[in-house]
């Protein structure tokens, strides 16, 4: 473990850290849940050193592949109004006053694949909070749909068919905000 890196407990707008303490603030898979982008960006600016960076990271299954798109359509139907990344509500951060503290704003997309199996795809879907709270009948229907979509395999790339492993395509969006 690199002693220069640490994880700290805090919330978006109250980190509990001193002024100019951090070189980097990383928010992974969570920025779209931020209730007040202006307060959060002001807090990040406060704790960052000059030239410090905020890195916002999201990891999504790649809907450019048919079986993945079918699965996402099936489980995203259960979101029930939660502020999911894909809705783009997080982009409102570019309109808040505190964005002025960050002179450079850059977005990059990274594509990659993960070796997986049908069972692991199902497990991944069931890590989502809005899926976890479904009643058992609905969970069973969703599980069957995800298995069927994946086994149909439209666009699926096999790694080892005999072992049942194939590529799980993903896209990461990385947003970099550099403090003046």
UniProtKB/TrEMBL annotation:
<dbReference type="InterPro" id="IPR029063">
    <property type="entry name" value="SAM-dependent_MTases_sf"/>
</dbReference>
<dbReference type="InterPro" id="IPR013216">
    <property type="entry name" value="Methyltransf_11"/>
</dbReference>
<dbReference type="GO" id="GO:0008757">
    <property type="term" value="F:S-adenosylmethionine-dependent methyltransferase activity"/>
</dbReference>
<dbReference type="Pfam" id="PF08241">
    <property type="entry name" value="Methyltransf_11"/>
</dbReference>
<dbReference type="InterPro" id="IPR051052">
    <property type="entry name" value="Diverse_substrate_MTase"/>
</dbReference>
<feature type="domain" description="Methyltransferase type 11">
    <location>
        <begin position="8"/>
        <end position="55"/>
    </location>
</feature>
<protein>
    <recommendedName>
        <fullName>Methyltransferase type 11 domain-containing protein</fullName>
    </recommendedName>
</protein>
């Amino acid at each position: 473990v690199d002693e220069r890196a640490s994880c700290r407990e805090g919330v978006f707008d109250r980190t509990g850290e001193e002024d100019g303490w951090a070189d980097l603030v990383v928010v992974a898979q969570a920025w779209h849940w931020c209730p007040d982008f202006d307060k959060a960006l002001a807090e990040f600016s406060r704790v960052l050193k000059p030239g410090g960076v905020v890195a916002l990271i999201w990891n999504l299954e790649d809907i450019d592949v048919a079986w993945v798109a079918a699965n996402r359509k099936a489980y995203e139907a259960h979101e029930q109004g939660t502020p999911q990344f894909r809705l783009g509500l997080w982009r409102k951060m570019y309109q808040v006053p505190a964005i002025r503290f960050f002179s450079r704003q850059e977005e990059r997309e990274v594509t990659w694949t993960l070796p997986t199996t049908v069972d692991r795809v199902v497990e991944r879907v069931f890590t989502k909070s809005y899926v976890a709270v479904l009643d058992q009948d609905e969970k069973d229907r969703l599980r069957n749909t995800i298995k069927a979509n994946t086994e149909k395999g439209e666009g699926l790339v096999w790694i080892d068919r005999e072992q049942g492993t194939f590529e799980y395509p993903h896209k990461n969006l990385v947003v970099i905000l550099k403090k003046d």
